[in-house]
Amino acid sequence: MVAKPPAACHIRAMASPPSPPIDDMLVFDRALVRRHRTRAAPGFASRHGFLVDEVADRLVERLADINRHFPRALDLGAHTGALGRMMTAAGKVDQVVSTDLAAPLVAAAPPPRLVADEEALPFADGVFDLVSSCLSLHWVNDLPGALIQIRRVLAPDGLFLAAMLGGETLIELRQAFLEAEALVEGGASPRVSPMADLRDAAGLLQRAGFAMPVADVDTIDVTYADPFALLRELRGMGETNAIKARRRTPLRRETLLAMAEIYARRFPAPDGRVRATFQVIWLAGWSPGPDQPQPKRPGSATARLAEALGTQEKPAGEKTGR
Question: Phi, psi at residue 161, to the nearest 5°?
Fold first, then answer.
């Protein structure tokens, strides 16, 4: 059992955290997500945490570009705490509170730490200066609601900085499974999770009320010895199928072999290996604060753009000379 943060942390728990979305709206089986992450815990940091480590390192690089120190940070969906350790080592934060859905994972993170669900944050308003998240939010059912909760626990002018897997992640595996199931079974079932795209992510930040929202994307290409090595890796990462609408019968051997053959033929990498794509969507936004830059009211400018550029201003509709 993972202990809650010590009293010295000064984090006040809410009496009754917000309820998760109703069952009809669920895309993911969160209990199964928890089981997958729990199963992955023993070997995660030593054998299967490479992707989280790489993305956490890139996130800290982005944080280093911000001329701000953050006394108290929340590492949301912390896995074994790699991101929190990196932020502390970089001198950007004083204290990191690590949370994860799975107790055996977060038990390896530095204290203070606790088990918490991204869909029902157990913190009072405005207690963090920074909320960061590394490759966990793609398993959230109610992402708009989670972003609203994140903004709620941020202090005024606090920063939200996160990385989540995007819609092009594992596009090769998705296509290979679809083709194999259509060929062998005459139909397809969801095998790879639906994920947000860049346009969706940017819009969600605005809807959640973040100031100065920014979203952009990276792609990380990885090679594996064969498709079965990729499947073993995903299991070790706790990233296997947790879609509620998944087929509940075991995967047929013929389908699995067909998938592997299609994958190897369509997505080869050098030296007889296969490639896999991980798309990372970056999210950044600020909790509204009184000292933030505000856009000027239209028509309130005191200088003309033409003067600044050293050109001659022309009335609207007048064509420039050739």
Answer: -140, 120
Which phi and psi angles does 166 have, rounded to 5°? -105, 180
- pTM (global) more than 0.85: no
Q: Is 97 helix (H, G, I), strand (E, B) or coil?
A: strand
Q: Which of 117, 75, 283 is nearest to 196 (CA)?
A: 283
In angstroms, rounded to a whole number, what is the distance separating the alpha carbons of residues 316 and 233?
60
Rounded-to-integer distance, Cα 161 and Cα 296, Å = 26
When pLDDT is cut at 50, 70 and 90, the band that residue 26 belongs to is confident
Q: Is the pLDDT of residue 237 over 50?
A: yes
Contact of 4 with 99, CB cutoff 8 Å: no
Question: Residue 143 corresponds to which tokens in the numbers above?
Answer: 């992402």
Looking at domain 19-169+194-224+276-289, does it have CATH number 1.10.580.10?
A: no
